[in-house]
Amino acid sequence: METKTVNILIKIILILLGVSFLFPLYWMINLSFKTKSEVYDNPFGLPHQFNFTNYFDALEKFNFLRYFTNSIIYSVSTIVITVLIGSMFAYCISRMTWKFKGFALSYIALGLIIPVQVVIIPILTMTKAIGLKGTHLGLILPYAAFSLSSCVLMFYAFFRNLPMELEEAACIDGCNIYQTFFRIMFPVIKPAIATQCALIFMNIYNEFFLAFILGADDKIRPLTVGLLNFFVSIGVSHWGQIGAAMIITSLPTIIVYLIGNEQIENALTAGAILK
């Protein structure tokens, strides 16, 4: 009887916790359909009449297409660079025997604990020195560098559990090391690749700090920085348009997570423990 009561209490707590997580999304959607006056008269209740003009006004005032294109460029480029380099390095430290590979793994793991705020001045100095400030590449390279640690560790957890017979069979068939990696090993870790693509996309698409510092030019600003400029330009006089702009910019990450959430859960479970 006590066990049943405890289970019911746990379920109630989890339901309340889930509702609390969903409330900001509900409030944002609710806000986007209200008129300027109704936002203050009825802040949390459902709108009396759904006002779709907020979305059209937000798209008209907010240069969504330019900022969205920049965000996609940053996200996709970071995914390609990080997955390619991270998978090759993880393969080296998990499947090959070479000197200092333990040190290399520890060095990569250090990237998980170094906050970007600590190294922002050296990054800014380097991007200026090599002429990348004000370009897309000036943001893509730091994004890839900070995404590399978690990517390598996840791929390492997958590679180390694969049987050695895969490489032995490839070697017998005449494959060199690159053919073995790209034709045999790389396709085997598709769950980890899909997970990293989803996680990197959501992280880079929502990143603000580096974009705000390094993406000073309007032509290379991503959605997060563009959204800040939109808020500053209209002030707090029209929360309906602000809510509409937030919904528009949030849709890609919501869609990516809904598509890849199962892969993320499976990959994190499969490679949860590092030896």
Regarding CATH, which class of the largest domain?
Mainly Alpha
Q: What structural class should be given to the helix and strand makeup?
A: mainly alpha
Choose one word for the global shape: globular
CATH architecture of the largest domain: Orthogonal Bundle
Number of domains: 2
Assembly state: single chain
CATH topology of the largest domain: MetI-like fold
- For the termini, the CA-CA separation is 41 Å
Helix content: over 70%
Walk me through what this model shows:
With 275 residues, this protein is mainly α. It contains 13 helices and no strands. The protein folds into two domains: 2-52, no CATH class; 55-270, MetI-like fold (Orthogonal Bundle), CATH 1.10.3720.10. The protein is globular, with a radius of gyration of 23 Å.
Task: Set down the secondary structure blueprint.
Layout: H1 2-32, H2 36-41, H3 53-61, H4 64-95, H5 101-109, H6 120-129, H7 137-159, H8 165-172, H9 177-188, H10 190-206, H11 209-214, H12 223-234, H13 239-270
Brief summary:
The protein is an all-alpha fold and 275 residues long. The protein is built from 13 helices and no strands.
Question: What labels would you give this structure?
Answer:
2 domains; 275 residues; MetI-like fold; 0% strand; 13 helices; mainly alpha
